[in-house]
């Protein structure tokens, strides 16, 4: 089982869009669990799943329920042969998660512990993290084999990458970071420059770019990954390339 966290300190950088599209790509080779760790519930929404976690997140994180008791099936169709995508939905109980973890024994290892159960069931786990540096993020980073971090091309993107590095370096088990430029608008000179220069200058930044496109916003109408409703769109192909780069890292 490989565990991937989509994480950045920056809000609105494309973590959730990435998590949902990578779940689609990963399901081509094996069953996937997508865990929505953000009280906003955006990946729960985008996969068409009911925002209700039976027993609340406390039962899951501090004992009483296991993943198989509370997962729901992603509600979009997949081609024959593609494996299932299960979602651990976020609901209102996630607002308490930070406090809950803080009070728990082994407060940085609860997510890792919950996932132990799942290793025979899923080939890939994707953890969709909330923005910012939090105990939730520390838990996800601790559980992850790789941290996937979208960076919108702005003068602040390297500062954000530095913050991600710091949080990961503080982990007892620092996983490699794979960053990539997201929301890239090739009409803007600064974006073209960033897409050319940053991957060349920073070893963690992949040479894969996710373009800015309304097709990503349409995920909210379709409640599905881009490839499920626009398979030939360049954005679907870009997420597929991102997945290939991640699997190369995990090999
Ligand atoms: N490549 C893209 N092109 C156009 N819009 C995008 C792209 N990626 C993300 N968006 C839009 O930007 C917004 C934020 O994206 P997303 O929810 O994936 O970010 P996030 O990092 O998970 O945000 P948060 O920090 O709130 O969890 C959404 O409305 C999404 O539709
Ligand atoms: Mg998000």
TrEMBL record:
InterPro entries (UniProt xref): AAA_dom, DNA_Partitioning_ATPase, P-loop_NTPase
One Pfam family here: AAA_31
SUPFAM superfamilies, alphabetized: P-loop containing nucleoside triphosphate hydrolases
Domain AAA: from-to ranges: 1-168
Superkingdom of the source species: Bacteria
UniProt name for this protein: Cellulose biosynthesis protein BcsQ
